[in-house]
Design brief:
Four Helix Bundle (Hemerythrin (Met), subunit A), globular
Length: 192
Amino acid sequence: MPLSSKKNLSYFFKQLPNGLSLLRLLCGPIVFLTLLKKHYLTSTFLFCAGILTDFIDGHIARYFRITSKMGSILDPLADKVFVSLTAYGLFLLDAIPLWFFLALIARDVVVLLGAAISFLRPEQHPQPLPHAWGKFSLACQALSLFLGFINLFYHSISPSLMYSVFVATLVTMIFSLSIYTARFVRYGFYEK
């Protein structure tokens, strides 16, 4: 393989995680709109594709040890927008309860505020690195939202099953948020 082809391939793989994150960011509003238009099959497919892009971009970034300032902002932002808009659409269609939707939004607002402070004051608040509980929490959120999609189709999922999954997801969200908060507080809130 010629050297220029290797360079192009290397460049492609280095940009792929950010490209997938951007795709997920753009997919969030589309999922929301297709939900509102009651195109449930399309929105379910796009939701699954969006979750898959999150898995793939993370896997590629870890495997090739790719990090970038843009990726550290774009990936979590894409996750928040994608999940929040999907949850909002499902809530509007009564597929998920209000308390679960509000918990998702509240957690994401707190995490985004912390990330914004980290971005604006990097000398005091380094960018928080993802951790296993954050990834597990996102997987639980995805499962909960997927149950919401199934609920749109069948309306026969046991309410106690849905409630149990939502509560378990809430626990992972709180635990994950507490880890991010502890990391943030460790660096202090004020100029030194």
